[in-house]
Amino acid sequence: MTADKHLQSWQERFEMAEAMQPLLGKLYRNQGVEVVLYGKPLLNASTIEIIKSHRLVRRHVGDKLRLRESFPFVEALSKLAVKQCKVDIGKLAINYWREHSDASQVEAYMSQALASAIDHDDNQQARDVVLYGFGRIGRLLARLLIERTGVSNKLCLRAIVLRGGRKGDLEKRASLLRRDSVHGPFNGSVEVDEENNAIIANGTYIQVIYANSPDEIDYTKYGINDALVVDNTGIWKDEAGLGLHLKSNGATKVLLTAPAKGAIKNIVYGVNENDILDEDTIVSAASCTTNAITPVLKAVNDKYGIVNGHVETIHSYTNDQNLIDNYHSADRRGRSAPLNMVITETGAAKAVSKALPVLEGKLTGNAIRVPTPNVSMAIISLNLNGETNKQDMNEYLRNVALCSELQNQVDFTESTEIVSSDLVGSRYAGVVDSQATIAEGNRTILYVWYDNEFGYSCQVVGVMQKMLGLHYQSLPVA
Asked: Domain Glyceraldehyde 3-phosphate dehydrogenase NAD(P) binding, which positions (predicted)?
């Protein structure tokens, strides 16, 4: 009898999650509403992923959230004229059920909580995006942009620019989009149009352009205008080099997916994106490590004040290293990446001050490249102005992750079993490992995981939206 009860409960949850999926899809495609559950995206989530995301709620807030309790909120949301926003139905549902015993007032509650997004006058125009380069970050950005395809989508991937163009190149590029050894298969279909040099992914027509220099392309020939060019090659990092993109017809703004040199603004989304002005034509999204540590450092500094500190990055190996021992211009990086831990330098700690000037001169940093293909960790050792302990520090950072302006950047885990591969695909800039936190008096050591590929790419998308003047409300307000 007990076994039958558990199976019946599972089937009920499974059916409820299945019923949610078409509503979630229509909300995004038709209204531009992205539904999350305590920060976990439900857009394109599988049935099992929806069930698992509900189970995590109890870990966050102590209260259980059943699918039958959240489903009325998805249903009510689908009936409201809400547009262009991110809605956390987990937070809405938990708040509601703490004060109500039935679902009779859900629609009225939702109407009030989401009033600012109902009948929102959406005058934001769709904008063209070009990916210059199609390596690790370029392909993940493509995945992120394609998953948002729909009539309400404002970031339109129009083209990819590559060097080369040899026979068979197009099919190989498409194959790398279809399959990824770290992030798994592409969620959908990818076709190749050899005649027109294009890739069609989930109905998105992506022109493939071959060029040897940024300034030799006329994007308007392909119907691309006023475009944001996202340079993920890492070849050009200063204003002179990146400025070559702006000499191309149809390109008006450039975003670099690496730390920039000179006076170019280094932006960590969630921290200093408001530094981007309409007249800024070249912006950097900083590095994956800078994105991972800056939101956490901001949170800690806001509450305790940081006197000084050191950041040690345990970083997965990258394309810049060698598979086997061979010549490399940098110290130690010529040694085999899959076989060695390699001490190297990082500018991430110093770069924090470009996004968070209050920490200028307060941080040092170093890095160790390790034999894993993805997911890294930052060990942040800090001397504080105020005193704390492990419990207080963790409680504060849990609240930062759940209900602050940094909730989309900072995640928090209490798992005693989590390892790096568990964080592949994390959409957060950084994930605080609370079990490893050390805090006593005015000293603390924090361990922050980050998917240095996918999590960083999510941050880049945020900077893209800001550069193009695209704004999405997050509701309920933290």
From this structure: 127-288
